[in-house]
Amino acid sequence: MKIVRDLLLVCITCILVSLSSEAAEWAQFRGADGSGISTEKDLPVSWSSENGILWAADLPGQANSSPVITKKRVDLTTQLQDGSLVVISLDRETGKVIWQVKLGAGKLDAKGPANLYSHRHNAATPTAVGDEGHTWAFFGSGHLACISAKTGDVVWQRDLVKDYGAYNITFGMGSSPRLWNDLLIVSCMTKGASYVVALDKSSGKQVWKHDRRYPAKDDGPDAYSTPALIKAGGKEQLVVVGSDHVNGYDPASGKVLWYSDGLAIDSPYGRVIASAIGSNGTIVATSANPGGGGLGHVLAVKAGKGNVSESGFAWKHAKTTPDCSTPIVLGDRVFMVTDNGIASCLKLNDGSVVWTKRLNIGTINASLVAGDGKIYVQGIDGKCAVVAADDNGEIISVNEVDGTFYATPAISDGVIYLRAYERIYAIKP
Fold this sequence. Notes:
The protein is mainly β. It has 2 helices and 34 strands. It has helices spanning 2-21, 160-164, and strands at 37-38, 53-58, 68-69, 73-79, 84-91, 97-105, 129-130, 134-138, 143-148, 154-159, 178-180, 183-188, 195-200, 206-211, 228-232, 235-241, 246-249, 256-260, 277-279, 282-287, 297-302, 306-307, 313-317, 328-330, 333-337, 342-347, 353-358, 369-371, 374-378, 383-388, 395-400, 410-412, 415-420, 423-427.
């Protein structure tokens, strides 16, 4: 009996060690569901270019795509000076390159000024998706590829512009794909082709496609938001935001479950970049008016059936609204930040303001991420504010590393990954 008991203890110990050694993943933009929330504890709160760095690695080219983290890898995309589209896989423990693959070249047919705000024309703005066997990379030029994580070989690739129509959007496609079970889902919102499509992740073949046409004059134009997976009505829904409409899909079939208008801004500069967020059936979406001298707004609706524009309307907020940065919902609070660094906390149930404060970290384009009761706000110039996710919003720390940061941070296994144009940092307490 003693021998059996000892063997059992050994087995249990081995299992626990194995489980503890498995690194947590952050394998899509803002995590698996797009909420930007990590359940981990003891995350870093203080670092600099000299302290708190597990490793840092220089990257070729420039890009705004965020890193995605699997158990053993850090995957990201970049675009070289000659236009080459590149996917890179790094060892998550050391930052060393495992493989690097070039997927041809892509040039954005963007309508915005060619030299002004050149970072917005980068084809490596969408974030990749990864799992243990593969990496799926999408570029703003419409190029989509599946790559073997073991060898770096291309498994399949598609040109969505060739297959579904040319993009007509100011700064090229910025929406990142979302992986749900065996489906890779891509959202495209433009003046031309405007759709949501689900592809078989193994083959790239189309499973379903919903052409997005709503009774709004400009639902497609200048919408760059990434689909999110939000639980509503007792099930997981794919929530997509266009320039005027936000709506929920059945991710398995592409069936439209509900939709709401109310996001449109009467301005030629109105646009949607942030993804939808939500909790307990309340969906929050944002739109912005960065060039017209006016403010955008935040819209909250209750998910339901059919057109919920009136029946599901919850509240609208039109002050200190985000443009690029996707907010965070934690419990019954909404946390968000403007591009010029004004952070605020709203009540989810009615949109009333709990607090507003200036972070003093410069311009912010990265989306918010959160974990361990803290919100991480990454500024373009390298400053990152750590803010308490409560009704006081204390600024816990402001940390700085070298680089230009448009990408959203990733959190995995106690490490925060910060991606600059040409460099990536792994931050650990």
